[in-house]
Design goal:
Order of helices and strands: HHHHH
Helix content: 55-70%
CATH superfamily of the largest domain: RNA polymerase subunit, RPB6/omega
Length: 129
């Protein structure tokens, strides 16, 4: 196949700006090790990406999804689907909090006992002065 031009790809992706973004995404995928869907023919990765889009050997929707996920800055977390699961999580958190409170109280009691026994100041004598 001769060198691909943008006009060959515009029929598949009508927006030139989107075509550039999708081509760049496919080129990144190829550079990361994704298998080629056409022969390379000594072409650079960008040209191979354009040829794949023109020949419709890659899914444009899949490239679009990968591009969007790569540009997202926040991660969406799945919410628990039922109230029972949420209540179980809340109970686990409450129990963990109570265990932390108890261990903190035990440490404070232990420190207080040490303060009373270990740190009793000796009586001063005339020799110490």
């Amino acid at each position: 196949m001769a060198r691909v031009t943008v006009e060959d790809c515009i029929l598949k992706v009508p927006n030139r700006f989107e075509l550039v973004l999708l081509t760049a995404q496919r080129a990144r995928d190829i550079s990361a090790g994704a298998p080629l869907t056409i022969d390379r023919d000594n072409d650079k990765t960008t040209v191979v990406s354009l040829r794949e889009i023109a020949d419709e050997t890659v899914e444009v929707d899949g490239l679009r999804t990968a591009l969007i996920q790569g540009l997202q800055k926040t991660v969406d977390f799945d919410e628990p689907e039922d109230d029972a699961e949420m209540q179980a999580i809340e109970i686990e958190l409450a129990e963990a909090s109570m265990n932390l409170d108890l261990s903190q109280e035990m440490r404070e009691d232990s420190l207080n006992e040490q303060d009373e026994t270990d740190f009793i100041a000796p009586e001063e004598t005339e020799e110490d002065l």
